[in-house]
Amino acid sequence: MVRMDGRGSKSDQETFSVSLDMHEQGDSKCFDDDGRPKRTGTVWTASAHIITAVIGSGVLSLAWAIAQLGWIAGPAVMLLFSAITYFTSLLLTDCYRTGDPLTGKRNYTYMDAIRSNFGGNDFKVKMCGLVQYVNLFGISIGYTIAASISMMAIERSDCFHKNGGKSHCRMNSNMYMISFGIVEMIFSQIPDFDQLWWLSIVAAVMSVTYSTIGLGMGIGKVIGNRRIKGGVTGIIVGTVTKPDKILRAMQAVGNIAFAYSYSFILIEIQDTVKSPPSASKTMKKSALIGVAVTTFFYMLCGCSGYAAFGDLSPGNLLTGFGFYNPYWLLDIANAAIVVHLVGSYQVFSQPLFAFVEKIVASRFPDSDFVKKEIEIGVPGLRPYKLNLFRLVWRTIYVVISTVIAMLLPFFNDMGGLLGALGFWPLAVYFPVEMYIVQKRIPKWSTKWICFQILNISCLLVTLCAAVGSLAGIVFDLKTYKPFKTNY
Question: What are the distances in angstroms from CA 311 to CA 248, 308, 322?
Fold first, then answer.
């Protein structure tokens, strides 16, 4: 019984104490140390996010890239990029928490990690943010282009099949881009990045599906040809001019860099992982799995495509119509590409969505338009919380990226440019510089010099790739008419 003076008996106090402990334990099971809902990500869900991010539409241009570089330089450049990506990913995983890897302050975004490690250096934070978010926006454009090309490829393959290859089967990409944009508008209203784990797993399965189909069809083509095409130095001068050969090789490097782009969302992926063990340990395992799986598929797809078509390798293996039959298998592969890109678009866009929404919420803390959430009942599911600002801002984002994709639908050139813009600053420079600060590596020490050599070398590669890709875009713009038929 409880006494009327407000003080409980000893047994009552013990009962209350036990009840309080149980309540606190219940809270600890529902929330992490930062007060946010418990993270549930594992090695496998993080690996799925990475595979979704890395095995993107870039895999389809690898046969073309190897064709520009040849049998020696092509695979060598691919292995080099995979090694650099994995190494710098390991450095970046340690930046998720400041201080202790298990209990230190969490950095929720790439920019938060920059801010923590460089002591609030505004220039570096702003530089990082500019490069990261421009690149994320560019990837949204690139994925819209790639998805529309795959949707057109399905229609074209069916058209060729019905007409026996006699019809030109011309069509416009605009409606396909608009359709893809509408789907992304719907998916963009998913409020939290960690709720996309299922979408990433579906997208990862799709990426493996179309990569495997491309690989199988490449091997089948080689067997049919009864020889391996291609040369040691790639496409020969004569087929193209010497300046074109150089520019194509530079663009090919950019395409390979684009195929490995994911470092700038690694911190966001890591923020979905549960602990203990420390999130850095989990992400290091996930990075190894993700990069190993993607490199395996990249080597097989790129090399089999080049072996099948040699110097005539198409810019997009499954939509450049290096293959015509079996048409139904091409349709499955291209449908898988579209599904994958729907997921990848969201994986890459969510960090930019979250950044803008965080800034606006801090500037307008009392605005109902920004803060208020309207609950909408969904049969069989928990109520959906609709936020008006999120609805308007994310819709505008998708519309703008779709319109730009319609104006510049150049798959290889855009891929090379995006790879060039994002690779050095986000995948190399910032991870290396943060590691140097964390470990307090003295200037001019052997390790410091090695890191600077890596930095400078990757900067030069990035500049070359950017020049080659920009030259390709300029060349395409001379003959392209916006909003007109592409095929």
Answer: 12, 10, 12
